């Protein structure tokens, strides 16, 4: 392994131990709380040491994602959700705010900004997390190099409408975002889902290198890993029906299962075999009970003992947080790039403005020239619809654009890259030119079609002010 190539420029760290003790997760779907809640995680305890790759495995519905989300403080206690037990980092309790400062979370769906290139995506994070220009550049280059993203660094991320990078490159970019931030601990929900076996191996291999060389704590859920990938795991959590049936190094797993009467057939992938035993089927119930009994008798006490030995240590690597102004500037810059590149969006907004202008102008064609009360009434009607159509145009960012960006915003806000208010100010600022230009287009069209006189000038002003107020509200 080439150490020099993958050691980040940041100083080496002592590492972070994530642990949980007597963790219960109960959900009550009955709104009146009259029935007993469903136990999703049942009194489990575990340790994820630094410098190790911990894989959470189990049959579908075993509780893997729930465990990962609870460790990431992404599930909070509500009236129908009960979470009890201790969740600790280096022996300290932590909340979602603290978690965002020492950890990164890579979601199963790669939520990225479609109109940025891979490099710009990483630079956006670096600009918000580092002050020193050289450090920003070296962090981005380090992530590009480590994740082998150099070839596609100038390709757009893309989406359904915009051709962009491949699925594997998307996944690597999502991991790159966390690598730029360089947290002590990275949690990943199914990092290999939807990838071919080679790309899946490359990604897990990268995580393994990261854990060994930089002493990061790596935890992920995974489905049916190939035997090559299995060999990269240091530690395995096997879950069945919300309880552990194995926890420990992969080397000891086969012997342990053999000792409790489950011998893995030769040439079989051990994980495939053990997960098949844990399937929640009628004829497997007694096997599952035997697995629970074996775990309680042989492993639980070892884990309790290891937990009691965890020393209370400070959490290092508290991250830099960009100030409000820096946050707004970065969001604004990204928004401007989006407007430049998302041609469909801008063109559709221009077409919409022209269409509405023509529609109102056509309906009230020459109305201002009609004599008497009828003419005045029609002109007022035309002006009313003109204001309303400008109002509808101003709603565009709220109705069309925000839902598209919502997931990106939630991910970034969860990672504490910026505050909600900074996002709001940055995003609203991008809209200001549109709020001025589109009403002018509409009113210029209507000016001649309705045959308005120079009162229109004041209407333009009213419109603009109206819309600035809408966005501000
Ligand atoms: N908030 C919730 N309300 C109700 N049921 C829930 C909730 N969260 C999880 N569950 C249930 O708990 C079980 C475990 O869910 P979880 O997503 O953790 O499983 P998983 O092991 O990750 O499964 P998969 O491998 O299929 O993704 C599932 O049966 C799921 O339906």
UniProtKB/TrEMBL annotation:
Record GO terms (molecular function): ABC-type transporter activity; ATP binding; ATP hydrolysis activity
Name this protein carries in UniProt: ABC transporter domain-containing protein
Compartments where located: Membrane
Keywords: Membrane, Transmembrane, Transmembrane helix, Transport
Highest taxon in the source lineage: Eukaryota
InterPro entries to which the protein is assigned, alphabetical: AAA+_ATPase, ABC2_TM, ABC_transporter-like_ATP-bd, ABCG_dom, ABCG_transporters
Transmembrane regions listed in the UniProt entry: 350-368, 380-400, 421-441
GO cellular component: membrane
CDD domains per record: ABCG_EPDR
Topology term for the membrane: Multi-pass membrane protein
Span of domain ABC transporter: 18-266
Any single Pfam family the record assigns to this protein: ABC2_membrane
Main localization category: membrane
